[in-house]
Design goal:
single chain, about 140 residues, 2 domains, 3-stranded antiparallel beta sheet, 4 helices, about 40% helix, about 20% strand, elongated
Length: about 140
């Protein structure tokens, strides 16, 4: 519902690096890759000679890699009652960061390249941004 967020998302999706793909396609891609791992391992097992010492390793790897999608699906089912991720501009609205149902999944530092297009010039600057991915929200910050 936030027009500024929609504008930023539209600009990101139209960037040449994204090949005009919508954000949802990038969110689904890792899950698609994980579900293909057992198929790939099964193909490797089929191509490995059964009398080879590597065959048993292939079978064990197939067994283990087949657990990954099942585990992920069970986690998704656990959280299927979530109504979805909420996107807010935190500077405009108070946000309760500490919650009993929220935990940190990943955090990290990235370099963001920001384009500033003026009337007669185009300038690119670098900014260090910090991402905090929680189970239900992504927070992007800058150091003051």
């Amino acid at each position: 519902t936030n027009p500024a967020f929609k504008e930023v998302l539209s600009r990101i999706e139209s960037h040449e690096d994204c090949r005009n793909l919508p954000m949802i396609s990038f969110l689904i891609l890792p899950m698609q890759r994980v579900t293909r791992l057992p198929l790939l391992m099964d193909t490797i097992c089929q191509k490995t000679p059964k009398d080879s010492a590597k065959y048993e390793n292939c079978k064990q790897a197939l067994k283990e890699v087949s657990k990954v999608p099942r585990t992920l699906f069970s986690v998704f089912k656990k959280f299927s009652n979530f109504e979805g991720l909420q996107c807010d501009f935190l500077a405009l609205q108070p946000f309760p960061l500490v919650s009993s149902s929220r935990w940190l999944v990943k955090r990290g530092e990235l370099t963001a390249y920001v384009e500033d297009t003026g009337l007669f010039s185009k300038r690119t600057s670098k900014q260090q941004v910090y991402f905090f991915l929680f189970n239900d929200v992504l927070i992007i910050t800058k150091k003051k």
